[in-house]
Amino acid sequence: MDLKISDKVAFVTGGGQGVGRRICLQLAEEGVKVAVNDFFPERADAVVEEIRNAGGTAIAAPADITNNADIDAAFDKVVSLLGPVDILVNNAGVTVARRTKGGIAPMFLETTVADWKEIIDLNIWGMLYCVNKVLPGMKARRWGKIVNIMSEAGRAGEARLAVYSGAKAAMLGFAKAIAQEHGRDCINVNTIALGAVSHEGIKSGALSPEATPENNERLGKMLKAYPIATGLQRLCKPEDIAPMVCLLASDRAAYVTGQSIGVNGGFVMI
């Protein structure tokens, strides 16, 4: 299927590894000019090199998306080198740090104000800054696609991830509101909800790409929570998510807006 998004410009936050990296690569395969944002410049540079080596167009746009001045500078660079942003993917996010022993996240009462701020700043303020930057141009051109990457913790809630669950729920509520405000401007705003994802940025444990039900007992237990995973014998991969992002970033999904779509293996069915 030709998505007809060749030569559009996309800005992908947290694009340096994992889900964000695969989204950048897939958009580039569709002919999109990609601005790879990441907090770590070396990660963004590496993904840009991958895209260029495959014949695509990309630039690095490293920035701390919780810093409005950083975002201003990053978007100014993108507009000057690639053009106005047509597609925004709010992918960057962070959970509270898990404990070293056992990898278990703390309960809410065991977290600190600093923990809350880190999660809220990246998952909410970062999204707000980026959306605020792209909306005026999208409105003027009467074309724009915004895709938020959230967690099923935001739709169903998850113990030990209380603040993260709340932040991701806020992403969904915000997306629905913007979809209502700017449908008249032909701007589509949607959210993709994820469960556990295995990717190259995770070096050990059940979510490591090297983990299998045979060598990781916890993974074997996790697979039982995902109906399709019991058949596939694996967790979600970035390659499962990126095609849905590309579809929502195209006019093939022109009549889809304000929606929350689960790419979650059936972990949550809504």
User: Which structural class best describes the helix and strand composition?
Assistant: alpha/beta
Major β-sheet profile: 7 strands, parallel
> In CATH terms, what is the fold-level topology of the largest domain?
Rossmann fold
Average per-residue pLDDT, rounded, comes to: 93
The CATH architecture of the largest domain would be: 3-Layer(aba) Sandwich
Q: Count all strands and give the number.
A: 7
Radius of gyration, CA atoms, in whole angstroms = 18 Å
The geometry reads as globular
Strand order of the largest sheet: 3-2-1-4-5-6-7
When the domains are counted, the total is: 2
The ordered string of helix (H) and strand (E) elements is: EHEHEHEHEHHEHHHE
Query: Helix segment count?
Result: 9
Q: What is the H level of CATH, i.e. the homologous superfamily of the largest domain?
A: NAD(P)-binding Rossmann-like Domain
> What low-confidence regions span 5 or more consecutive residues with pLDDT below 50?
none
Q: Helix amount, in percent? A: 40-55%
Q: Which CATH top level class of the largest domain fits?
A: Alpha Beta
User: Cα distance, first to last residue?
Assistant: 27 Å
Residues in β-strands, percent: 5-15%
